[in-house]
Amino acid sequence: MAPATFALDASALLAYLLKERGSEVVSAAVEAGASMSTVNLAEALSTLAKNGADPVAFAADLTRGGLLGGAITVQPFTVADAIEAARLRPLTIDAGLSLGDRACIAQAARLDLPVLTSDQDWRGLDLPVEVRHFRGPN
User: Fold this and answer.
1) Are 106 and 86 in contact (CB under 8 A)?
2) What count of other Cβ atoms lies within 10 Å of the Cβ of residue 111?
3) Strands (DSSP E) found in 1-138
4) Residue 53: what are its φ and ψ, rounded to 5°?
5) Angle at 67 between CA 62 and CA 71, to 5 degrees
6) What is the pLDDT of residues 22-42, one digit of tens each?
7) Which of 3, 84, 103, 107 is the most buried (most CB within 10 A)?
8) Whole-model pTM?
């Protein structure tokens, strides 16, 4: 498996899975190699569960389909990530970034990867990573 070239947040995985607007950009990133935090995977699975999907079955389908542990490497949320996510809290609170958002940023910073997101609230923030929006201009 090739090393990851992007870190995906939950919105990117959901767009990819549900064929939402911008999914072709995420698909290209997944094909090139992508990484995702366990926190962001939980966030995406929670959204699917809220909409009636079984998260256990969905995760099994993702694994059987080669996404988890294959095309998308799922990274554990480390102590270093937790510290970085906490450090980012006061810097991003006014923009409304969630713990999931900060977990994605922390993981991307640790792995030196750009982040792929649809979240427009990240625009204009001084973040330690490059942010690419898959639904709009960068």
Assistant:
1) no
2) 17
3) 6-8, 34-37, 72-75, 115-117, 131-133
4) -80, 150
5) 180
6) 999 999 999 888 999 999 999
7) 107
8) 0.91
Angle CA(2)–CA(60)–CA(35) in degrees, nearest 5?
A: 30
C-alpha span between 126 and 88 (Å, rounded): 10
Q: Where are the domains of the chain?
A: 71-138
Q: Is 118 helix (H, G, I), strand (E, B) or coil?
A: coil
**Residue holding tokens 């919105």?**
11
Token look-up 């204009």 returns 124
At 31, phi and psi to the nearest 5? -65, -35
Give the residues of the chain that fall short of pLDDT 70. 1-2, 137-138
**With left for phi above 0 and alpha for psi between -120 and 50, is residue 58 left, alpha or beta?**
alpha
Q: How far apart are CA 73 and CA 92, in angstroms?
A: 26
CB-side exposure of 125: number of CA atoms within 13 Å?
A: 24
Half-sphere exposure (CA, 13 Å, Cβ side) for 23? 9
24 in Cβ contact with 134 (< 8 Å): no
SS3 68: strand
